Amino acid sequence: MRLVVGVSGGSGIPYAYAVLRALQALGTETHLIVSSGAKRVMSAEGRGPRLGDLTALAAEVHDDRDLAASVASGSFRTAGMMVIPCSAGTLAKVAHGMADNLLSRAAHVTLKERRPLVLVVREDPLSRPMLLNMLAVHDAGAAVMTASPGFYHAPETVDDLLHFVTARVLDQFGLDVPGFQRWKEVPDGRPS
Ligand SMILES: Cc1cc2nc3c(=O)[nH]c(=O)nc-3n(C[C@H](O)[C@H](O)[C@H](O)COP(=O)(O)O)c2cc1C
């Protein structure tokens, strides 16, 4: 399976790292795009994953300025794309079909090809423009998720919270993350 992973400048680079690790373990071919906003956030987040940690997990890394990259074309077949975290700015671009960097172009391509697109937004509180943009991308076919883990699986560590969000995001692509316990299921997938 080939997936595009976009990382934009919302806070929460550890979410991207957790998803990339899970995708690598599942043998997925990931095409990674990291926006300049994401690089800025990465340095502000300090002790979190570094750019090299993310790129080491990808099958191919694309420069966000390279609008001639493979993932800029719909003829390059993928099983879909996620943007994690997705900034309010990137959400607005996707909602309005703007494609002035590779990340927003690849998201636009994913929508026009009617492939799964998952935007994991991170912002609080949500402004009216952001809420309208979320509705616009939803109506255009994307799934809008928030980087807000549930607590009904009794998390003990930050990794548990990251694992929850990772599993729910990969669910959108029909991918199972090992160790994720679903509601009312025992660990082997049977109803409890
Ligand atoms: C430390 C830091 C944290 C940020 N956190 C968020 C955030 O959680 N959500 C958001 O929408 N923007 C956030 N921003 C702002 C975006 O990074 C900024 O709007 C950027 O231009 C987005 O560009 P991009 O979508 O191309 O990455 C943050 C910026 C910085 C420097």
Give the SSE layout.
Elements: E1 2-7, H1 13-25, E2 29-34, H2 36-44, H3 51-55, E3 60-62, E4 81-86, H4 88-95, H5 102-112, E5 117-121, H6 128-139, E6 143-146, H7 158-171
Parallel strand pairs: 1-2, 1-4, 2-3, 4-5, 5-6
Helix pairs in contact: 1-7, 4-6
The chain binds flavin mononucleotide.
Flavin mononucleotide binds near residues 87, 88 and 122.
Protein name: Flavin prenyltransferase UbiX
Family: Belongs to the UbiX/PAD1 family.
InterPro entries: Flavin_trans-like (IPR036551), Flavoprotein (IPR003382), UbiX-like (IPR004507)
CATH top level? Alpha Beta
Bound molecules: flavin mononucleotide
Radius of gyration: 16 Å
The CATH architecture category equals 3-Layer(aba) Sandwich
Helix and strand sequence? EHEHHEEHHEHEH
Describe the largest sheet: 6 strands, parallel
Strand order of the largest sheet: 3-2-1-4-5-6
**Helix and strand composition category:** alpha/beta
Oligomer: single chain
What proportion of the residues form beta strands (DSSP E)?
15-25%
- The number of distinct structural domains comes to 1
Helix content: 25-40%
- CATH homologous superfamily? Flavin prenyltransferase-like
Mean pLDDT: 96
End-to-end distance: 31 Å
Number of strands: 6
Q: Give the overall shape.
A: globular
Uncertain ranges: none
* CATH topology-level fold name: Rossmann fold
